[in-house]
């Protein structure tokens, strides 16, 4: 379940932690900048702790004949999975192109629809009501990091918030160790990419993808697929 915290709440919390609630020199603009500096840091830790699917978004791409490269979403951070739609209720996973194998593939020769699951970058908080998903109380880490920076700037002792930061960072590490990683599998990329022995009976011919220069490149196998 999401646990949303607003920018206003983060600013208020940081002021309380740094004991600057009545300090006119600690402005909303400064605290907003600190929030947006530390949110990506905490977000990266949470994404790495997983499961990644919690944060994933999905977009669709429809291929055009002769065109291999398709622009990634403007909020793209990293890829989770790619699926080609074989029918309204059937999807086939597409795997990454093996290194050095570009010569075995060609641009799509038809219009195929793919679902691209990816992790977006964290939102930029601007208005007081804009929110960030703290997931399980990890918004506290953002507030403490903000308070630490304020206290350091004012040359006051940040030891109390530093203790809280260490505790919260340890919680994230523990979350990572305890997540369900699932079984490890070895995938035969040659078969998945369209070897005649693979025996796939779907209608699409997309065999693999690669990420390159801000684009998702999609390819068919020169072998063809049956």
Biggest sheet features: 8 strands, mixed
Q: How many helices in DSSP terms?
A: 5
Report the principal-axis shape: elongated
Low-confidence stretches: 180-201
Tally of DSSP β-strands: 10
Structural category is alpha+beta
State the helical fraction. 25-40%
Strand content: 25-35%
How far apart the termini lie comes to: 43 Å
Mean pLDDT across the residues is 85
Q: What is the number of domains?
A: 2
What is the C-alpha radius of gyration, as a whole number of Å?
23 Å
Assembly annotation: single chain
The helix-strand sequence is EHHEEEEEEEHHHEE
Describe this structure in words.
- The protein has 5 helices and 10 strands; from the N terminus they run E-H-H-E-E-E-E-E-E-E-H-H-H-E-E.
- It is α+β, with helices and mostly antiparallel strands and 226 residues long.
- It folds into 2 domains: 105 residues, no CATH class; 105 residues, no CATH class.
- The strands form 2 sheets. Strands 2, 3, 4, 5, 6, 7, 9 and 10 form an 8-stranded mixed sheet that branches. A two-stranded antiparallel sheet has the order 1-8.
- The longest helix is centred in the first third of the chain and has 22 residues.
- It is elongated.
Which characteristics define this entry?
elongated; 2 domains; 226 residues; eight-stranded mixed beta sheet; two-stranded antiparallel ribbon; 32% helix; 10 strands; 5 helices; alpha+beta; single chain
Summarize the structure.
This protein has 226 residues and is α+β, with helices and mostly antiparallel strands. 32% of the residues lie in helices and 26% in strands.
